[in-house]
Amino acid sequence: MSSVTLKNVTKIYDTKKVIDNVSLTIQDKEFVVLVGASGCGKSTLLRMIAGLENITDGEIYIGDKKVNDVHPKDRDIAFVFQSYALYPHMTVRENIAFGLKMRKIDKETIDKKVLEAAQILDLGEYLDRKPRQLSGGQRQRVALGRAIVRNPKVFLMDEPLSNLDAKLRVQMRSEIKKLHQKLQTTFIYVTHDQTEALTMGDRVVVLDKGVIQQAANPEEIYNNPANMFVAGFVGSPQMNFIDSNDFPYKTKENVIIGVRPEKMVCNEEIKFNVDIDITELLGSEKIVYFNIGNKKCSAKLPADYKLGNTLELSINKQDLYFFDKDTGKRIY
Length: 332
Description:
332 residues, Rossmann fold, CATH 2.40.50.140, six-stranded mixed beta sheet, 8 helices, 17 strands, globular
């Protein structure tokens, strides 16, 4: 049983509360992504699960075992760091085997496990190389291999792709998802990248200021955000937020209206013109920026969409979101 349960977990540094009464259950074999801006508490939460940070209050369980006071090496977890944390003087083989040697595992078993991990990660031809002879993606696979050989109950990954270039990040996202499917164990993955979160996670947990804003599958997070923070954080460009007083269609007062950029020009019920500020061409699409009232907004259009100095927006009423102006909570 590789579930992870957090019950009213709080972390306070000096007088600052960085994790605020978080409760969350991660199911056995689930791939959960913790996502949020820098400083939201996601890495701190991961490190508390690992035992690398003490908790101020609350309880953490791995399976049915409470682990608040259990040493990290006894929690049966594997932690993959952003920096890879490889030993530069060791070969790939030695790096992958290091943790097993420290546990006094016999050489035959170590060799077998290293070869199995190398096969899974396509590292067989690199086993006798040093880290400096590898690409960033290969180094990250070595770090994953070192975790795999331990056969842990839970994999914890703290922004493991952030040091890679854009093309390699896309490739490694796919490789890590395949790895999860092969190993059939629990993955908890931290990132600030919403694309990683939406494409990798069975469930996405959006954090802000140490508080869970929403925990749901990627489709639910994108299509039914719980509040303005989630709606604005997930999606690129972000959702447009327009004061009801500036919106050229009668709606409830004292609300903020949200609409995704890709829903701003769909030849439907609500039509009005805006003055174009800036246009960005992004291959198969273009992003057009403009103001509505004092709010900066954007629309996502096909690359061949003909533009002048103004743009006619045409929005379907069913594509509008309504948020309470004071609390930011979604109304409907």
